[in-house]
Amino acid sequence: MQRESNLKNASLMARRRAAVPRGVGQSHEVFIARGENAEIWDVEGKRYIDFAGGIAVLNTGHCNPTVIAAVKAQLDLYTHTCFQVLAYEPYVELAERINALAPGDFAKKTMFLSTGAEAVENAIKIARAYTKRTAIIAFTSGYHGRTLLTLGLTGKVAPYKTGFGPFPAEIFHAQFPNALHGVSVDESIASIESIFKNDVEASRVAAIIVEPVQGEGGFNVAPPEFLQRLRALCDQHGILLIADEIQTGAGRTGTWFAVEQSDVAPDMITLAKSMAGGFPISAVVGRADVMDAPAPGGLGGTYAGSPLSCAAALAVLEVFKQENLLDRSRQLGLRLTTSLKKMAASHRCIADVRGLGAMVAIELCKGGDIHQPDADMAKRLAAEATQRGLILLTCGTYGNVVRILVPLTASDAIVDEGLAIIDACLTAIQAV
Predict the structure, then answer these.
(1) From its phi and psi, is residue 347 left (phi > 0), alpha (psi between -120 and 50) or beta?
(2) How far apart (Å, rounded) are the C-alpha atoms in residues 99 and 382?
(3) Are 193 and 241 in a shared domain?
(4) Residue 131 to residue 127: CA distance in whole angstroms
(5) By C-alpha distance, which of 58, 65, 91 is closest to 309?
(6) Which of 174, 186, 283, 375 could pair with 399 as two cysteines, CB 3.0-4.6 Å apart?
(7) Is 309 left (phi over 0), alpha (psi -120 to 50) or beta?
(8) Could you tell me if 185 and 287 lie in one domain?
């Protein structure tokens, strides 16, 4: 491509710094020119393996041909009406499909929005409308978005909440269970009971929102027992349970929704990221009676449920069916964890390998001591990997976790090539 040969990453970064606010961070000083499945090429023609997937957006890969074909076909029909003005069938069909996929032996309804933060905000609005209560309980290390309400829910200060307060009132944080760091399921549930005693009575709590696997928080997996006890606690007090599946949903963990693996049916689930293969759409799916609580006009948005994104999301569902991607997610997760655990045996800096399905991460600590998180090592690993042609992302409360979100459609050869780069990077970094 002529454009690839004329542009340079460094000059583009200089233009970016001059034109874009510094608050819009960037993990890698790389500008993409094109992408195909699990590979990308930058403007200088260098190839990279993509283990980031646009932060869990590309479960079906870059430019999936089925998704692209569906969007191209929709482009020739109409691109926008605002669903609340003129409705269109793809929105309704997608809602029907999501309703059928969501767990729970009860009638369901789904609404669409544009971003994950919008989905979470609307789930909170719906919960308050249904329960006539105001308080919300979230969890430490949780991440729910960048708007003021979702930042209030988020349980991580830097860099998301720093300098942006005050945040909305009546949001309380309980301890998320983390056996590796000494927080048991019993202690987590006890922390909720403590909130009921010390901060807000249970009868004023509208909802508890939880990620079945914490994303930005470090890929901490909620034990099934914990989610089951949350469900029981919510039922006891008339509280709604919201599962935030923005990052875990759309098949990343081996089931369409991660919460399915705990045999728990939340009252509402939020979904976004990979549900449309790179096109912006999000959803709230939940109990029909709960979803119907707001009055007509109380929900919606100008671009909510874009026709193009609905077409893309319907295509993603077909790709999952045709290519058996839920099974592939489970197989891929086993391949990743097996390889990373072998690396951990020879690299003491890897204190833990964890995940659910193909949502996998390693936690890096000094000398493998979980009490000494090594964020610098995580940064160096990501930087070294970029130099060697692999895109990685860090996360975690202390920034010492490296997560893998490679497209589920990636070949074993590509995945193994990326894993070999991680191994080589760790060897090189520790040799310095």
Answers:
(1) beta
(2) 38
(3) yes
(4) 6
(5) 91
(6) 375
(7) alpha
(8) yes
**Whole-prediction pTM:** 0.96
- What one-character DSSP code corresponds to residue 369? -
> Do 104 and 168 belong to one domain?
yes
CATH number at residue 388: 3.90.1150.10
- Structural domains in the chain (count): 2
Q: Residue 123 sits in a domain of what CATH number?
A: 3.40.640.10
For residue 431, the model assigns a pLDDT of: 79
3 pLDDT higher than 70: no
What is the C-alpha separation between 33 and 45, in angstroms, rounded?
Answer: 8
Q: Are the beta carbons of 392 and 38 closer than 8 angstroms?
A: no
**Prior bond of 65 cis (ω within 30°):** no
Residues 79 and 55 in one domain: no
Query: Looking at the structure, do residues 152 and 108 belong to the same domain, yes or no?
Result: yes
Nearest to 396 by CA among 184, 218, 157, 129: 218
Domain that holds residue 35: 2-63+324-431
Phi–psi pair at 414, nearest 5 degrees: -65, -45
Residues 353 and 180 sit within 8 Å (Cβ to Cβ) = no
